[in-house]
Amino acid sequence: MRKQKILVTGGAGFIGGNFVQFMVNKYPDYDIYNLDLLTYAGDLTKHREIENKPNYHFVKADIADRKSIMSLFEREKFDYVVHFAAESHVDRSITNPEIFVLTNVLGTQVLLDAAKENKITKFVHVSTDEVYGELDFNPTTFFTEETPLQPNSPYSASKASSDLLVRAYYETFQLPVNITRCSNNYGPYHFPEKLIPLTISRVVNDQKVPVYGDGKNIRDWLHVIDHCAAIDLVLHKGENGEVYNVGGHNERTNLEVVKAIINTLGKSKELIEFVEDRLGHDKRYAIDPTKLEKLGWKPSYNFETGIAQTIQWYLDNKDWWEQIISGEYKTYFEYQYSYIK
Ligand code: NAD
Ligand code: TYD
Asked: Is the beta carbon of 39 within 6 A of some atom in ligand 1?
Protein backbone atom coordinates (compact mmCIF):
# COMPACT_ATOMS: atom_id res chain seq x y z
CA MET A 1 0.00 0.00 0.00
CA ARG A 2 1.19 3.55 -0.79
CA LYS A 3 2.39 5.44 2.31
CA GLN A 4 0.65 8.71 3.21
CA LYS A 5 2.84 11.68 2.29
CA ILE A 6 3.09 14.71 4.58
CA LEU A 7 4.75 17.88 3.32
CA VAL A 8 6.19 19.99 6.16
CA THR A 9 7.30 23.46 5.06
CA GLY A 10 9.95 25.20 7.16
CA GLY A 11 11.14 21.89 8.60
CA ALA A 12 14.74 23.13 8.95
CA GLY A 13 13.67 25.86 11.39
CA PHE A 14 12.87 25.76 15.10
CA ILE A 15 9.28 24.51 15.40
CA GLY A 16 9.11 22.85 11.97
CA GLY A 17 12.38 21.05 12.78
CA ASN A 18 11.02 19.71 16.06
CA PHE A 19 7.81 18.72 14.29
CA VAL A 20 9.67 16.83 11.52
CA GLN A 21 11.61 14.83 14.12
CA PHE A 22 8.45 14.19 16.15
CA MET A 23 6.58 12.88 13.08
CA VAL A 24 9.45 10.85 11.57
CA ASN A 25 9.90 9.04 14.89
CA LYS A 26 6.20 8.66 15.74
CA TYR A 27 4.92 7.57 12.31
CA PRO A 28 7.27 5.20 10.44
CA ASP A 29 4.36 4.56 8.06
CA TYR A 30 4.15 8.18 6.90
CA ASP A 31 6.61 9.66 4.43
CA ILE A 32 7.68 13.05 5.81
CA TYR A 33 8.92 15.62 3.27
CA ASN A 34 10.77 18.59 4.75
CA LEU A 35 10.64 21.54 2.32
CA ASP A 36 12.85 24.48 3.27
CA LEU A 37 14.74 27.30 1.58
CA LEU A 38 17.46 27.20 4.28
CA THR A 39 17.44 30.91 5.02
CA TYR A 40 19.51 32.24 7.95
CA ALA A 41 16.97 30.52 10.27
CA GLY A 42 17.13 27.05 8.71
CA ASP A 43 19.80 24.40 9.18
CA LEU A 44 19.89 20.68 8.52
CA THR A 45 22.53 19.72 11.09
CA LYS A 46 19.69 19.33 13.60
CA HIS A 47 18.39 16.36 11.59
CA ARG A 48 21.52 14.17 11.73
CA GLU A 49 19.69 11.51 13.75
CA ILE A 50 16.83 11.16 11.28
CA GLU A 51 18.36 12.09 7.93
CA ASN A 52 19.04 8.48 6.93
CA LYS A 53 15.66 7.13 7.97
CA PRO A 54 13.65 5.79 5.03
CA ASN A 55 10.58 7.93 5.88
CA TYR A 56 12.50 11.28 5.88
CA HIS A 57 13.04 13.32 2.72
CA PHE A 58 14.41 16.83 2.15
CA VAL A 59 13.57 19.25 -0.66
CA LYS A 60 15.26 22.64 -0.96
CA ALA A 61 12.76 25.14 -2.39
CA ASP A 62 11.24 28.59 -1.94
CA ILE A 63 7.52 28.47 -1.08
CA ALA A 64 7.03 31.67 -3.08
CA ASP A 65 8.47 30.06 -6.25
CA ARG A 66 5.22 29.03 -7.95
CA LYS A 67 6.82 26.97 -10.71
CA SER A 68 8.88 24.72 -8.49
CA ILE A 69 6.12 24.34 -5.88
CA MET A 70 3.56 23.39 -8.53
CA SER A 71 5.82 20.82 -10.16
CA LEU A 72 6.78 19.34 -6.76
CA PHE A 73 3.10 18.87 -5.83
CA GLU A 74 2.29 17.33 -9.21
CA ARG A 75 5.19 14.91 -8.89
CA GLU A 76 4.79 13.85 -5.25
CA LYS A 77 1.00 13.91 -4.80
CA PHE A 78 1.12 14.90 -1.12
CA ASP A 79 -1.79 13.89 1.13
CA TYR A 80 -1.21 16.50 3.85
CA VAL A 81 0.53 19.87 4.16
CA VAL A 82 1.69 21.33 7.47
CA HIS A 83 2.86 24.85 6.78
CA PHE A 84 5.47 26.40 9.10
CA ALA A 85 7.80 28.17 6.63
CA ALA A 86 7.89 31.88 7.40
CA GLU A 87 9.96 34.84 8.33
CA SER A 88 9.36 34.72 12.07
CA HIS A 89 11.23 37.47 13.95
CA VAL A 90 9.36 40.65 14.92
CA ASP A 91 12.53 42.78 15.17
CA ARG A 92 13.60 41.82 11.63
CA SER A 93 10.09 42.68 10.38
CA ILE A 94 10.50 46.19 11.77
CA THR A 95 13.79 46.65 9.89
CA ASN A 96 12.80 44.88 6.67
CA PRO A 97 9.05 44.21 6.24
CA GLU A 98 9.09 43.33 2.54
CA ILE A 99 10.46 39.78 2.82
CA PHE A 100 7.71 39.09 5.39
CA VAL A 101 5.04 39.87 2.80
CA LEU A 102 6.81 37.84 0.11
CA THR A 103 7.35 34.72 2.20
CA ASN A 104 4.44 34.77 4.63
CA VAL A 105 1.69 36.09 2.34
CA LEU A 106 2.69 35.22 -1.24
CA GLY A 107 4.38 31.97 -0.18
CA THR A 108 1.24 30.83 1.65
CA GLN A 109 -0.95 31.69 -1.34
CA VAL A 110 1.29 29.66 -3.69
CA LEU A 111 1.04 26.65 -1.33
CA LEU A 112 -2.75 27.03 -1.10
CA ASP A 113 -3.00 26.99 -4.91
CA ALA A 114 -0.81 23.89 -5.14
CA ALA A 115 -2.87 22.17 -2.41
CA LYS A 116 -6.12 23.07 -4.19
CA GLU A 117 -4.94 21.92 -7.64
CA ASN A 118 -3.75 18.61 -6.21
CA LYS A 119 -6.75 17.94 -3.95
CA ILE A 120 -4.86 17.38 -0.72
CA THR A 121 -6.67 15.83 2.28
CA LYS A 122 -5.70 18.52 4.81
CA PHE A 123 -3.76 21.81 4.94
CA VAL A 124 -2.70 22.85 8.44
CA HIS A 125 -1.57 26.47 8.58
CA VAL A 126 0.64 27.17 11.59
CA SER A 127 -0.06 30.69 12.76
CA THR A 128 0.48 32.71 15.90
CA ASP A 129 -1.46 34.39 18.70
CA GLU A 130 0.24 37.64 17.62
CA VAL A 131 -2.43 38.06 14.92
CA TYR A 132 -4.88 39.01 17.72
CA GLY A 133 -2.77 42.03 18.70
CA GLU A 134 -2.19 42.70 22.39
CA LEU A 135 -4.07 42.25 25.66
CA ASP A 136 -3.93 44.62 28.62
CA PHE A 137 -2.49 43.46 31.94
CA ASN A 138 -5.86 42.28 33.34
CA PRO A 139 -5.03 38.61 34.07
CA THR A 140 -8.59 37.40 33.38
CA THR A 141 -8.61 38.34 29.67
CA PHE A 142 -7.46 35.81 27.04
CA PHE A 143 -7.34 35.40 23.27
CA THR A 144 -10.07 33.05 22.06
CA GLU A 145 -10.64 31.90 18.47
CA GLU A 146 -13.32 34.63 18.23
CA THR A 147 -10.99 37.49 19.20
CA PRO A 148 -10.79 39.93 16.24
CA LEU A 149 -7.51 40.04 14.31
CA GLN A 150 -5.64 43.25 15.17
CA PRO A 151 -1.98 42.66 14.32
CA ASN A 152 0.46 45.38 15.36
CA SER A 153 3.83 44.42 13.83
CA PRO A 154 4.71 43.82 10.17
CA TYR A 155 5.36 40.19 11.19
CA SER A 156 1.95 39.67 12.78
CA ALA A 157 0.24 41.60 9.96
CA SER A 158 1.81 39.26 7.40
CA LYS A 159 0.72 36.20 9.42
CA ALA A 160 -2.82 37.59 9.80
CA SER A 161 -2.91 38.17 6.03
CA SER A 162 -1.91 34.56 5.42
CA ASP A 163 -4.59 33.38 7.89
CA LEU A 164 -7.22 35.31 5.92
CA LEU A 165 -6.10 33.67 2.66
CA VAL A 166 -6.33 30.22 4.27
CA ARG A 167 -9.85 31.05 5.48
CA ALA A 168 -10.80 32.29 2.00
CA TYR A 169 -9.60 29.07 0.32
CA TYR A 170 -11.86 27.13 2.70
CA GLU A 171 -14.88 29.37 2.09
CA THR A 172 -14.40 29.74 -1.68
CA PHE A 173 -12.89 26.41 -2.76
CA GLN A 174 -13.74 24.15 0.23
CA LEU A 175 -10.04 23.41 0.65
CA PRO A 176 -9.86 21.29 3.86
CA VAL A 177 -7.90 23.60 6.16
CA ASN A 178 -7.15 24.25 9.81
CA ILE A 179 -5.41 27.23 11.34
CA THR A 180 -3.51 26.88 14.63
CA ARG A 181 -2.59 29.99 16.62
CA CYS A 182 0.03 29.24 19.24
CA SER A 183 1.61 31.35 21.94
CA ASN A 184 5.40 31.86 22.22
CA ASN A 185 7.34 28.60 21.90
CA TYR A 186 10.66 27.68 23.51
CA GLY A 187 12.79 24.53 23.59
CA PRO A 188 15.61 22.78 21.68
CA TYR A 189 16.85 24.34 18.40
CA HIS A 190 15.32 27.77 19.09
CA PHE A 191 17.30 30.28 17.01
CA PRO A 192 19.33 32.56 19.33
CA GLU A 193 17.78 35.80 18.07
CA LYS A 194 14.65 35.12 20.21
CA LEU A 195 14.47 36.09 23.90
CA ILE A 196 14.99 32.71 25.62
CA PRO A 197 17.88 31.25 23.55
CA LEU A 198 19.44 34.72 23.27
CA THR A 199 19.42 35.01 27.06
CA ILE A 200 20.76 31.48 27.64
CA SER A 201 23.58 31.84 25.11
CA ARG A 202 24.64 35.24 26.45
CA VAL A 203 24.35 34.43 30.16
CA VAL A 204 26.45 31.27 29.67
CA ASN A 205 29.15 33.52 28.20
CA ASP A 206 28.75 36.23 30.91
CA GLN A 207 27.46 38.74 28.35
CA LYS A 208 24.82 41.43 28.90
CA VAL A 209 21.18 40.54 28.15
CA PRO A 210 19.15 43.30 26.43
CA VAL A 211 15.69 43.65 28.04
CA TYR A 212 13.38 45.94 26.09
CA GLY A 213 11.63 48.78 27.96
CA ASP A 214 10.85 47.98 31.60
CA GLY A 215 10.77 44.18 31.07
CA LYS A 216 7.13 44.00 32.19
CA ASN A 217 5.66 42.82 28.86
CA ILE A 218 4.06 39.40 29.23
CA ARG A 219 4.33 36.37 26.97
CA ASP A 220 2.55 32.99 27.37
CA TRP A 221 5.26 30.33 26.94
CA LEU A 222 4.72 26.83 25.55
CA HIS A 223 7.32 24.08 25.15
CA VAL A 224 7.78 23.29 21.46
CA ILE A 225 6.99 19.58 21.94
CA ASP A 226 3.56 20.47 23.31
CA HIS A 227 3.01 22.60 20.20
CA CYS A 228 4.06 19.67 17.96
CA ALA A 229 1.58 17.36 19.74
CA ALA A 230 -1.17 19.94 19.24
CA ILE A 231 -0.49 20.17 15.49
CA ASP A 232 -0.42 16.36 15.20
CA LEU A 233 -3.84 16.27 16.89
CA VAL A 234 -5.31 18.99 14.66
CA LEU A 235 -3.89 17.29 11.55
CA HIS A 236 -5.71 14.06 12.41
CA LYS A 237 -8.80 15.28 14.28
CA GLY A 238 -9.32 18.96 13.44
CA GLU A 239 -12.68 19.86 11.94
CA ASN A 240 -12.26 21.39 8.49
CA GLY A 241 -12.34 25.20 8.44
CA GLU A 242 -11.73 25.53 12.19
CA VAL A 243 -9.17 27.63 14.05
CA TYR A 244 -7.51 26.20 17.19
CA ASN A 245 -5.62 28.30 19.74
CA VAL A 246 -2.64 26.60 21.40
CA GLY A 247 -1.27 27.65 24.80
CA GLY A 248 -0.71 26.28 28.28
CA HIS A 249 -1.35 29.23 30.66
CA ASN A 250 2.30 29.94 31.38
CA GLU A 251 2.35 33.73 31.51
CA ARG A 252 5.60 35.37 32.56
CA THR A 253 7.00 38.90 32.30
CA ASN A 254 10.17 39.11 30.23
CA LEU A 255 12.07 40.06 33.36
CA GLU A 256 10.80 36.92 35.16
CA VAL A 257 11.99 34.79 32.22
CA VAL A 258 15.45 36.37 32.14
CA LYS A 259 15.85 36.15 35.93
CA ALA A 260 14.80 32.47 35.93
CA ILE A 261 17.53 31.70 33.39
CA ILE A 262 20.16 33.72 35.27
CA ASN A 263 19.24 31.96 38.54
CA THR A 264 19.36 28.47 37.03
CA LEU A 265 22.77 29.20 35.52
CA GLY A 266 24.00 30.67 38.84
CA LYS A 267 24.98 34.01 37.31
CA SER A 268 24.55 37.64 38.39
CA LYS A 269 21.50 39.85 37.76
CA GLU A 270 24.02 42.55 36.84
CA LEU A 271 23.96 40.96 33.38
CA ILE A 272 20.50 42.47 32.77
CA GLU A 273 20.65 45.65 30.66
CA PHE A 274 17.43 47.60 30.15
CA VAL A 275 17.48 49.02 26.62
CA GLU A 276 15.24 51.11 24.37
CA ASP A 277 11.83 49.53 23.85
CA ARG A 278 10.84 47.69 20.66
CA LEU A 279 8.63 49.82 18.36
CA GLY A 280 4.95 48.85 18.70
CA HIS A 281 5.86 46.41 21.50
CA ASP A 282 2.75 44.31 22.32
CA LYS A 283 2.03 44.40 26.07
CA ARG A 284 0.64 40.95 26.74
CA TYR A 285 -0.31 37.72 24.98
CA ALA A 286 -2.37 34.99 26.71
CA ILE A 287 -4.22 32.06 25.17
CA ASP A 288 -7.48 30.38 26.10
CA PRO A 289 -6.90 26.80 24.81
CA THR A 290 -10.35 25.39 25.78
CA LYS A 291 -11.33 24.46 22.23
CA LEU A 292 -8.14 22.43 21.66
CA GLU A 293 -8.44 20.79 25.08
CA LYS A 294 -11.91 19.58 24.07
CA LEU A 295 -10.27 17.94 21.04
CA GLY A 296 -8.03 16.01 23.48
CA TRP A 297 -4.86 18.13 23.94
CA LYS A 298 -3.03 18.60 27.24
CA PRO A 299 0.48 20.07 27.61
CA SER A 300 3.15 17.90 29.21
CA TYR A 301 5.43 20.71 30.44
CA ASN A 302 4.80 23.69 32.70
CA PHE A 303 7.19 26.63 32.48
CA GLU A 304 9.44 25.43 35.34
CA THR A 305 9.98 21.92 33.96
CA GLY A 306 10.21 23.17 30.37
CA ILE A 307 12.75 25.93 31.00
CA ALA A 308 14.94 23.59 33.09
CA GLN A 309 14.94 21.02 30.25
CA THR A 310 15.67 23.75 27.69
CA ILE A 311 18.59 25.30 29.62
CA GLN A 312 20.11 21.83 30.04
CA TRP A 313 19.67 21.20 26.29
CA TYR A 314 21.56 24.41 25.46
CA LEU A 315 24.36 23.41 27.85
CA ASP A 316 24.56 19.95 26.24
CA ASN A 317 24.37 21.23 22.65
CA LYS A 318 26.75 24.19 22.60
CA ASP A 319 28.14 23.08 19.23
CA TRP A 320 24.78 23.76 17.57
CA TRP A 321 24.31 27.34 18.79
CA GLU A 322 27.98 28.35 18.90
CA GLN A 323 28.22 27.61 15.19
CA ILE A 324 25.25 29.98 14.65
CA ILE A 325 26.35 32.89 16.83
CA SER A 326 29.84 32.89 15.33
CA GLY A 327 28.55 33.23 11.75
CA GLU A 328 26.50 35.93 9.95
CA TYR A 329 24.49 36.26 13.19
CA LYS A 330 27.34 38.42 14.52
CA THR A 331 26.58 41.13 11.93
CA TYR A 332 22.87 40.96 12.82
CA PHE A 333 23.58 41.27 16.54
CA GLU A 334 25.99 44.17 16.13
CA TYR A 335 23.42 46.05 14.01
CA GLN A 336 20.36 45.23 16.16
CA TYR A 337 22.08 45.83 19.49
CA SER A 338 24.73 48.38 18.52
CA TYR A 339 24.44 49.92 22.02
CA ILE A 340 25.51 46.71 23.81
CA LYS A 341 29.21 46.40 24.40
P1 NAD B 1 12.02 29.85 12.22
O2 NAD B 1 12.37 31.22 11.78
O3 NAD B 1 12.86 29.18 13.25
O4 NAD B 1 11.98 28.86 10.95
C5 NAD B 1 11.43 29.24 9.73
C6 NAD B 1 11.88 28.24 8.68
O7 NAD B 1 11.26 28.60 7.43
C8 NAD B 1 13.39 28.24 8.43
O9 NAD B 1 13.88 26.92 8.37
C10 NAD B 1 13.54 28.93 7.08
O11 NAD B 1 14.67 28.49 6.34
C12 NAD B 1 12.23 28.55 6.39
N13 NAD B 1 11.86 29.50 5.33
C14 NAD B 1 11.85 30.86 5.40
N15 NAD B 1 11.46 31.38 4.22
C16 NAD B 1 11.22 30.33 3.38
C17 NAD B 1 10.78 30.22 2.04
N18 NAD B 1 10.54 31.31 1.30
N19 NAD B 1 10.60 28.99 1.50
C20 NAD B 1 10.85 27.87 2.24
N21 NAD B 1 11.29 27.91 3.53
C22 NAD B 1 11.47 29.13 4.09
O23 NAD B 1 10.50 29.93 12.68
P24 NAD B 1 9.74 29.19 13.88
O25 NAD B 1 9.92 29.94 15.11
O26 NAD B 1 10.09 27.74 13.83
O27 NAD B 1 8.23 29.38 13.41
C28 NAD B 1 7.62 28.46 12.51
C29 NAD B 1 6.19 28.88 12.27
O30 NAD B 1 5.47 28.90 13.49
C31 NAD B 1 6.05 30.26 11.66
O32 NAD B 1 5.03 30.24 10.70
C33 NAD B 1 5.65 31.14 12.84
O34 NAD B 1 4.86 32.23 12.42
C35 NAD B 1 4.86 30.16 13.67
N36 NAD B 1 4.85 30.42 15.12
C37 NAD B 1 6.01 30.62 15.79
C38 NAD B 1 5.99 30.81 17.18
C39 NAD B 1 7.26 31.00 17.97
O40 NAD B 1 7.21 31.24 19.17
N41 NAD B 1 8.46 30.86 17.37
C42 NAD B 1 4.78 30.80 17.86
C43 NAD B 1 3.60 30.58 17.14
C44 NAD B 1 3.66 30.38 15.78
P1 TYD C 1 10.73 37.38 20.99
O2 TYD C 1 11.47 36.19 21.48
O3 TYD C 1 11.33 38.20 19.89
O4 TYD C 1 9.24 36.87 20.60
P5 TYD C 1 7.93 37.75 20.21
O6 TYD C 1 8.33 39.13 19.88
O7 TYD C 1 7.41 37.01 19.02
O8 TYD C 1 7.03 37.66 21.41
O9 TYD C 1 10.46 38.34 22.21
C10 TYD C 1 9.81 37.88 23.38
C11 TYD C 1 9.68 39.06 24.33
O12 TYD C 1 11.00 39.45 24.75
C13 TYD C 1 9.08 40.31 23.68
O14 TYD C 1 8.26 40.97 24.62
C15 TYD C 1 10.28 41.17 23.35
C16 TYD C 1 11.29 40.81 24.43
N17 TYD C 1 12.72 40.86 24.02
C18 TYD C 1 13.63 41.58 24.81
O19 TYD C 1 13.27 42.19 25.84
N20 TYD C 1 14.94 41.61 24.40
C21 TYD C 1 15.37 40.96 23.27
O22 TYD C 1 16.59 41.07 22.95
C23 TYD C 1 14.43 40.22 22.49
C24 TYD C 1 14.86 39.51 21.25
C25 TYD C 1 13.11 40.20 22.92
From this structure: yes
Residue whose CA lies nearest to ligand 1 atom number 1:
13
Domains of the chain by start residue, with CATH: 4-185+222-246 (3.40.50.720)
Distance 9 CA to ligand 2 centre (A): 24
232-258: average pLDDT: 98
Nearest residue CA, atom 6 of ligand 2?
Answer: 90
Q: What is the per-residue pLDDT across 290-318, written as a single tens digit (0 to 9) for each?
A: 999 999 999 999 999 999 999 999 999 99
3-state secondary structure the chain: CCCEEEEEECCCCHHHHHHHHHHHHHCCCEEEEEEECCCCCCCCHHHCCCCCCCCEEEEECCCCCHHHHHHHHHHHCCCEEEECCCCCCHHHHHHCCHHHHHHHHHHHHHHHHHHHHCCCCEEEEEEEHHHHCCECCCCCCCECCCCCCCCCCHHHHHHHHHHHHHHHHHHHHCCCEEEEEECEEECCCCCCCCHHHHHHHHHHCCCCEEEECCCCCEEEEEEHHHHHHHHHHHHHHCCCCCEEEECCCCEEEHHHHHHHHHHHCCCCHHHEEEECCCCCCCCECCECCHHHHHHCCCCCCCHHHHHHHHHHHHHHCHHHHHHHHCCCHHHHHHHHCCCCC
